[in-house]
Amino acid sequence: MIIPSDLAERITAIHAAPHRLVLAFAGAGSIGLAWLHAIAGSSRTVLEAIDAYSPRSRLALTGDLNAPAVSAETAQAMAAWAYRRARVVREGEWPLLGVGLTAAIITDRERRGADHAFLAIQSATGIQVRHLALERAGQQRLDQETQISRWLIDEIARACGIPS
User: Fold this and answer.
1) Please, which residues bridge with residue 119 across strands?
2) pLDDT, tens digit, for every residue of 61-90?
3) Could you tell me the sign of the dihedral formed by the alpha carbons of 62, 68, 32, 6, in that order?
4) SS3 letters across 1-56
């Protein structure tokens, strides 16, 4: 896997930071997780990750079977779950981050609504929620997945206090 040098530097800085992460995904972000693992140090940084695609899988994270798959509230619930999980699986006293990412991107079936993503990061001091609107025209699924994964890395770096 070839990782752009700017991303490799950001990920190296994330791994050098003291933060430990649990990540919860639904719909996109898996390339970002692969990038985190592709740079030495991920075993320090990533405590656990889950890809919760099905409604029942998301239920375990959100507590609501009827929660919309892609919303700020769902991303927040996933991040809160990830933060609680990080508190359970951590070893030692480290700053913890729970990351929740949910997205609607190009698919092989008809889907209503915009292509977009919500990312929430829970820390001991609060939660930050961000939204990313995606272009569909001229894009393929991999293009959107890559864009979301870059955004994920940038937001994790920001949460770790790493300047952009």
Assistant:
1) 101, 130
2) 898 888 888 999 999 999 999 999 999 999
3) negative
4) CCCCHHHHHHHHHHHHCCCEEEEEEECCCHHHHHHHHHCCCHHHHEEEEEECCCHH
